[in-house]
# Entry
Amino acid sequence: MIFGAVLARSMSTYRQVSHIASWQEALLAAEAGSDTAMAELRKTLFDPAAFSGWSTTSGGGAALPNAGSTLSNAQLLHDGEGNTQLNMTVTIDAPPELKDGGGRQWYRIRSTGTTFLPGATWMTADKKDHALRRFSFLFDRKTKQPVTRPQSSRLIELIVKPTSFENAITSDKPMYLNNYKIVVDSYDSRDSTKSTSGLYDGAKRRMNGDIATNSRLIDAGDAHVYGDAFTNAGVIEDGANISGEQRDDFYQELIPISKPDWPGGSGESPIEALPTIVSSSKTLAGGTKANPKRYKLSALTLSGSETLTIAPSAAGVESYTEIWLTGDLKTTGSGTIAIQPNANLKIFLEGSIDVKGNGTFNANSQPVRLQILGVKPAVGQTRRVDLNGNGVLVAAIYAPGHSMSLGGGGSSGLYWGSLTGNDISMGGNSQIHYDEALADTGHVTDFRIKSWFEDNK
# Structure
């Protein structure tokens, strides 16, 4: 009798331990599913084959709501006692109510992790344990369908936000700010209390001009940084004039920019091939946001007073233009890129940038209206962004594969917007005024989890 009592108690305790382990593993499976969905979502930024193997229909063949995609019955196996199998089912969709004020779509990820309960089909001696962990012995507690094996399942939901240019300056490798006259600060073109007519106003300076690197070194060079500075387990040298936090726990994957994939088929904007612009001014018109006017250029060189003008499709109509530049962008003298009111330009750059002289790019406008995206260089190739002279550049430059040099050849230079490069070196009297609106309105460069919760009903 004593042996029987001890054996019964031991078996119940052993079963309870196995059930607890399965319950915890179900959460691991659910989180693995959400990680898989996040990885696929990020792949959409550079891989046309993203979500390959996912289904857009339900088991009955009907299309999933909200442009959803699902990955079902993915499995993870392991050895050991107790449960050895983790199943996951994950769905990602785009509910219309998850659009923000700027019209950008947020995403919802729902991931269910399922594990199995070893042993016979009955509860442990502690019934409170079953109430806490919500096991399914005969029927799935969510779908109400019979189960073939006792199981535990857990559902988590994530809300994911697309993000853009979140810092004034970001680099993958070391950052050098080589002159104490360098100024980095911020403003917000959307708010009249933080800008004037949507333009930078020194009297309304804000202290969100953050600088960050994935490397171990920022040499601030006594530059005046009105914001935070972050390294990846590194050091910040000469940071006496940094107004905000100085931390060493930063890392942000700088997702590369791929060459454009412009089909130009039915319902798509045709690609207009233009000759190299060398010695004349040119005006390019735009299209709609969903169907922008697209141009492919072998190179773009503006010298003297030559101007590339980006115009709206009609006066007062918000319009969009895209240029695929397979070569270099160069300006000398007063060469200018002029973005007219209501026009927007996005440049996909395969070559390098070399800006000299006193030219102005998108002056008296907002940086989001001129975005330059550096395409990932081929292995063994070097690409640069050299911004010298005394001009004005109002733009967001995202070129994580390009080396950047600013201000080395001029006594002054004004940059409104955001800069992201492989490594960054600054000199002269460079001033960078970061527009905080870029974080919510620029080209999507990554995705961030904004909320996470477990549905435990």
Remarks:
- The radius of gyration is 27 Å.
- Residues 265-269, 275-279 have pLDDT under 50 and may be disordered.
- The first helix runs from residue 2 to 43.
- The chain has two domains: 2-162+448-455, 165-445.
